[in-house]
Amino acid sequence: MPNIKSAQKRVQIAERNRLRNKNYSSAVKTLMKTYYAAVDAHTAEPSDESKQAVQTAMSAAYSKIDKAVKRGVLHRSTGARRKAKLAKAWKIVDPVK
């Protein structure tokens, strides 16, 4: 533990930021898994309800990824790559005709 007061404060701030970053990255991973599960469910049994569930899950995941990038939790390129991966998973299942 640091002896200098400002260094102690930096340790506290770093811990607070680490927990916030962990929260965001965990939420991004969870929403991505939810999205992939919705895509799999739509693949197994296509319906309008399952398609709507996929769209809802996609918008939630996109939103959380964008917020994580804005906060600095994820790098810009990482956010773009993850969003592209989500879009590709949907494009394979439901190609534009």
From TrEMBL:
NCBIfam families in UniProt: S20
Top-rank taxon: Bacteria
InterPro entries: Ribosomal_bS20 (IPR002583), Ribosomal_bS20_sf (IPR036510)
UniProtKB keywords: Ribonucleoprotein, Ribosomal protein, RNA-binding, rRNA-binding
Role: Binds directly to 16S ribosomal RNA.
A Pfam cross-reference name: Ribosomal_S20p
GO molecular function: small ribosomal subunit rRNA binding; structural constituent of ribosome
Gene Ontology biological-process entries: translation
Official protein name in the record: Small ribosomal subunit protein bS20
PANTHER family, per the entry: 30S RIBOSOMAL PROTEIN S20, SMALL RIBOSOMAL SUBUNIT PROTEIN BS20C
GO cellular component: cytosol; small ribosomal subunit
Family indicated by similarity: Belongs to the bacterial ribosomal protein bS20 family.
Organism: Romeriopsis navalis LEGE 11480
